[in-house]
Design brief:
The complex is a heterotrimer. By secondary structure, chain B is of the alpha/beta class. Chain B has helices at about 10-20, 20-25, 35-45, 65-75, 90-100, 115-125, and strands spanning about 1-5, 30-35, 55, 80-85, 105-110. Helix content of chain B is about 45%, strand content about 20%. In chain B, strands 2-1-3-4-5 form a five-stranded parallel β-sheet, with helices on both faces. The N and C termini of chain B lie close together (about 10 Å). By secondary structure, chain C is α+β, with helices and mostly antiparallel strands. Chain C has nine helices and eleven strands. Chain C has helices at about 5-60, 65-75, 150-200, 215-310, 315-350, 365-380, 405-430, 460-465, 485-495; strands spanning about 80-90, 100-110, 125-135, 140-145, 360-365, 390-395, 400-405, 435-445, 450-455, 500-505, 510-519. In chain C, the strands form three sheets. In chain C, strands 6-8-9-11-10 form a five-stranded mixed β-sheet. A four-stranded antiparallel β-sheet of chain C has the order 2-1-4-3. Chain C has a two-stranded antiparallel sheet with strand order 5-7. In chain C, helix 3 (about 150-200) packs parallel to helix 4. The chains are: A alpha/beta, B alpha/beta, C alpha+beta. The interface of B and C includes residues 9, 59, 64, 67 and 88 of B.
Chain lengths: ~160, ~120, ~525
């Protein structure tokens, strides 16, 4: 995961646009987040996750029932840690589980080798970075975003849910 | 003539008696016999005057003839007798000894009686 | 039972190898196996720990990377039998005073394995527990690995051990064999060489001396052969010298024996010679009578014939009868004296003949008388001046004794000769006043016949008395006596007749020899 310092990166020409998009995305999300704290958005790496999915598909993916995207790339789930607000929301809304329960769930899946456990992040930007850098990654955040590598996945035609 | 014959062989007596039978018959000779030197001495002691001729053997057990000769010459000088030795040992040693002791004659056995008779004729008085 | 050197070496090497083999086949694999098991258990425990840690991190920090990696690792391991997560629940009782901890299986991989939380290791399964504790969940990771690998490894070790053991054993056998041979071959060669040397073959020197202690033995052996050779040669030479000496001694012995025989014969001849003169005289007398009486008889027959030639009237028939009687007596005397001479000759012949050793009944008195006269006359023949008084005392009751008459006669003759010599010697020293006397007596005493020859000569000096019976001992001047007389006499009486011959003497006074013969 590339750790970028936003202010410095802004000045570089190569990733200027990306960073700019990020910035806008973050502002967007901040606003969006403040505005609607219960909404979640799925973001995916452009090389892996499709542009849109149905809710059931999303669930299947997020539950670990599906291992690979249609294009064969490995599904990597990125979530916020359940000790964050977003994480808690994610865990409740999508999994209908508490953080502990979610851990247990994933633990058992990992144990049985059935799925790969999601990667949990403490900050949204880390999550976003991660998704951007990992083809096949899909993450759940509160606001949609878009960049060169990352796009929001339409769930049942809607960006958020 | 009285003759004393001294010899340890007893058959000498028979021999002399036969050899001198004529002389005995005629009385010319009277023979007496002693069978040892000791017997001869006894006889001379008891018949001193008689034997004038003594014929003695030398080799006798006990007193030898030479011993007898010596005794006769020593102790029986009178009457003077003629002593002749008759012996088988005719060797020079015996002869010289006999002569030394005064024997009158020395004859060797076997006795030649003819010779003896000749010699006796010469003695006969 | 005898264990030879080869076997000893073999046994030593084999025992060493066996000990090694034991180590290799049993102890070592066992140790190794134990090590493997320990390592394995550690490994399993570590894995379990890792997974447990991963679980703990996953639960605490929502970071599943660790546990995922660990799980990948564990799942890929072919040795995996199962991996289970146990959940520990604290169960309070109704009053919330006591609690129990119950462990239940949370998840297992692979799913089909049904386990109890209390599963433990057994022979084919290593089960390790790694506990973890978090705020939300506590439990343990139960990791079971099968021991197939270990068993396989153990088997592999054992297999290797066996192979190594066999190779070592084979090498040991070969070394042992070679070693035994290098020792036992030269030793046996030495033994064979020693045996051959013992049998006389000295051509057994060892040619190629080895360079070890056996070589020193071989060197010593060669030196021994050299010494033996030298000694044998020395002995050989000495033996030849001894042989020559022996040969000479042998010849000398033969010479001595011949000489001895000659001397004995000479002694016999000497005694015979002594007899001859006596015998000659003895024969002389009877022969004289034979001649004289036969001559006289011839004369007497002439007289008879003369008388018979006369006329009948002049014939003196008494005289004729006398004459015939005399003639008859003469013939008797002739016969008597002829026989007497014959007897003497026979006696002489018997004496000169070698004794047959046969014992015959012998009239001892007659024997003594005859030899007395013989010896007396014999001595007188030799020495004209010789004279001695002879006394005899023969016990009439003595009839015959079983004896070899010429041998006993020889003894009596010898004793008499000595007695006469002794008195003669004394007479030479004391011409007057000394009457030499020799007496011979016979008696019957205690079933033995005793013959005593006594003389009143000079006696036998003390220093000489022990030697008189020794052969070749004589007091007579050289050439006069053989010195064998008494020794032969002694042998005849004691060995020939089982009797006794003793002497008693008084120096200056006389000697008495006593013969005792068993009747």
């Amino acid at each position: 995961m590339k750790r970028t310092s936003k202010p410095i990166q802004l000045l570089s020409s190569k990733s200027a646009l990306l960073n700019y998009s990020f910035l806008i995305g973050c502002l967007f999300f901040a606003i969006a987040g403040k505005a609607q704290q219960n909404t979640l958005t799925a973001i995916g790496n452009v090389s892996g996750a499709p542009a849109d999915m149905r809710q059931s598909e999303l669930k299947a993916v997020l539950m670990g029932e599906t291992q690979r995207w249609k294009n064969g790339k490995r599904i990597i789930i990125a979530l916020m840690k359940t000790n964050t607000a977003l994480g808690k929301t994610t865990s409740l809304k999508i999994y209908d589980m508490s953080g502990d329960e979610l851990n247990k769930y994933w633990l058992s899946l990992v144990f049985q080798g059935k799925a790969q456990a999601p990667v949990f992040f403490t900050s949204v930007s880390d999550l976003q970075n991660f998704v951007a850098q990992n083809p096949g990654a899909i993450g759940i955040i509160d606001k949609p975003m878009a960049s060169a590598d990352v796009r929001a996945v339409m769930i049942d035609g809607k960006p958020s849910f | 003539m009285k003759v004393l014959v001294v010899d340890d062989e007893t058959d000498v007596k028979t021999l002399f008696e036969q050899r001198f039978r004529k002389e005995l018959r005629s009385g010319e000779i009277e023979l007496h016999f002693a069978f040892s030197g000791e017997q001869a001495i006894d006889y001379l002691n008891s018949h001193q005057q008689e034997a004038v001729l003594i014929l003695s053997d030398i080799n006798m057990p006990g007193m030898s003839g030479l011993e007898l000769l010596r005794l006769i010459k020593e102790k029986f000088e009178l009457p003077p007798r003629v002593v002749m030795m008759i012996t088988a040992y005719g060797d020079d040693g015996n002869y010289n000894e006999a002569m030394k002791l005064g024997a009158d004659d020395f004859l060797t056995k076997p006795v030649d009686f003819t010779e003896l008779k000749e010699k006796l004729k010469k003695i006969r008085p | 039972m005898r264990i030879n050197l080869k076997t000893k070496i073999w046994l030593t090497i084999c025992s060493i190898v066996l000990m090694f083999s034991f180590f290799t086949l049993f102890y070592f694999p066992q140790q190794q196996g134990q090590l493997l098991v320990n390592n394995y258990e550690n490994e399993v425990q570590n894995l379990a720990n890792t997974v447990a840690l991963g679980v703990k991190i996953a639960i605490n920090e929502q970071n599943f990377e660790g546990v995922q990696t660990a799980m990948e690792f564990v799942k890929d391991d072919p040795r995996l039998q199962f991996i289970s997560m146990l959940q520990s629940d604290t169960i309070w009782d109704a009053n919330h005073t006591k609690f129990q901890i119950k462990q239940k299986i949370f998840r297992t991989f692979p799913e089909k394995e049904h386990l109890s939380p209390t599963i433990t290791s057994n022979d084919s399964l290593i089960v390790k527990k790694a506990p973890f504790a978090t705020k939300t969940m506590s439990g343990a990771i139960l990791l079971g690995f099968n021991t197939k690998d270990i068993e396989a490894s153990k088997a592999g070790i054992k297999h290797t051990s066996i192979v190594v053991s066999c190779i070592v054993l084979l090498i040991a056998f070969l070394i042992g064999f070679w070693l035994a041979r290098t020792i036992s071959v030269p030793v046996l060669a030495l033994r064979d060489a020693a045996r051959k040397v013992g049998e006389g073959d000295l051509n057994q020197k060892i040619k190629h001396i080895r360079r070890d202690e056996i070589g020193q033995l071989e060197k010593a052996f060669n030196k021994m052969i050299d010494d033996l050779d030298k000694t044998t040669n020395d002995l050989s030479e000495k033996n030849m010298v001894l042989s020559a000496t022996n040969s000479t001694l042998n010849d000398t012995l033969i010479e001595l024996k011949k000489t001895h025989a000659q001397l004995v014969q000479s002694e016999k001849m000497a005694s015979l010679g002594e007899l001859t003169a006596g015998i000659a005289h003895e024969i002389q007398n009877p022969l004289n009578f034979v001649n004289n009486f036969s001559e006289v008889s011839i004369e007497l027959i002439e007289e008879v014939l003369e008388e018979r030639a006369k006329d009948a009237t002049e014939r003196d028939e008494t005289l004729e009868a006398e004459l015939l009687d005399d003639i008859s007596k003469n013939l008797e005397k002739i016969n008597h004296h002829g026989k007497r001479a014959d007897g003497i000759v026979k006696g002489m012949l018997m004496h000169s003949r070698t004794s047959t050793g046969l014992k015959e009944p012998t009239a001892i008195n007659a024997l003594c008388d005859e030899y007395l006269r013989l010896s007396y006359h014999g001595l007188r023949a030799k020495d004209k001046s010789f004279n001695a008084t002879i006394k005899t005392d023969f016990e009439p009751s003595i009839k015959t004794v079983n004896a070899v008459s010429q041998d006993v006669g020889r003894v009596i003759l010898n004793l008499l000769t000595n007695a006469f010599y002794a008195v003669n010697e004394k007479k030479q020293q004391h011409p007057t006043g000394y009457e030499p006397t020799v007496s011979v007596t016979t008696k019957n005493i205690d079933g033995m016949v005793e013959i005593k020859v006594t003389d009143n000569g000079n006696g036998i000096p003390k220093k000489v008395i022990d030697k008189i019976f020794q052969p070749f001992f004589t007091t007579k001047p050289t050439g006069q006596g053989t010195g064998l007389g008494l020794s032969l006499s002694y042998d005849i009486i004691t060995q020939g007749h089982g009797g006794e011959l003793k002497v008693e003497t008084n120096e200056g006074e006389g000697t008495e020899f006593t013969i005792r013969l068993p009747a």
